[in-house]
Amino acid sequence: MEKNLHKCSLLHHKENNAISFCQECKIYMCNKCEKHHSELFLSHHQYNFDKEKNDINEIFTGLCKEKNHPNELRYFCKTHNQLCCSECITKIKGLDFGQHSDCTVCTIHEIENEKKSKLNENIKYLEGLSINLKESINELKLIFEKVEKNKEEVKIDIQKFFTKLRNKINEREDELLIDVDKKFNELYLNEETIKEIEDLPNMIQISIEKGKLLNSNKDINLISLINDCLNIEQNINEINKRNLNLKEFKLIEYKIEFILNEKESNFFEKKKNLEKYIKVHIPKL
Fold first, then answer.
1. Helix axes 222-251, 191-198, angle to 10 degrees
2. What average pLDDT score do residues 40-56 get?
């Protein structure tokens, strides 16, 4: 994670670490400057750096992030669905400009109504998605509980089986028990999967609240509006991707089995090398 190493833009405070950024003034401010600036310019959009998650890349400055493009994001590339500056759309021979010179580009004012309209659609879509997602997560938890119970039952079966064997194969019994846990942990469906998907309702709710706030705020900076709209669209893509994985998990029959057929069992009684004849079987996803 890139730490915030920006200093205050005021010459007399250049040794002070910046704690905020003003989008209109395009300046970084220390705690002294930030206090005066907020009192003088109430309508300016200031971004305060999060003390716990101090990543400068998460602060939207309204400036282009391309190398050597310190310009305002006044254009929108429809081809790549992103904001860009004048140098992004200008092809100059010998210079590293024009990444979007061959794309379909318009001004941010031309895309305003389209993005606002899309924002309303996205809010409704997220509200509908939120209703079904919690139920799907609960169903997935039940599946996980069944798999967990099945795993424990398999371990018990292994333990019962090996109690009937000679003492010299106790070591092999322990190896198989460890193998069950190992194979179980290799499944795509595990506790981390549950935790990851369980965060989706919060992600949806935050996006809904952010979208409603944007929709009701008529004085919001246009560049910030479009950037926030893009963030919501990216959230939807991520949510859809995870939700697709969730649906796939629900369709899979998770069952761990301890398999020892009659032929192997008879052969097992005569052989000292058991490794080739006793296996823990887990179906592939």
1. 140
2. 66
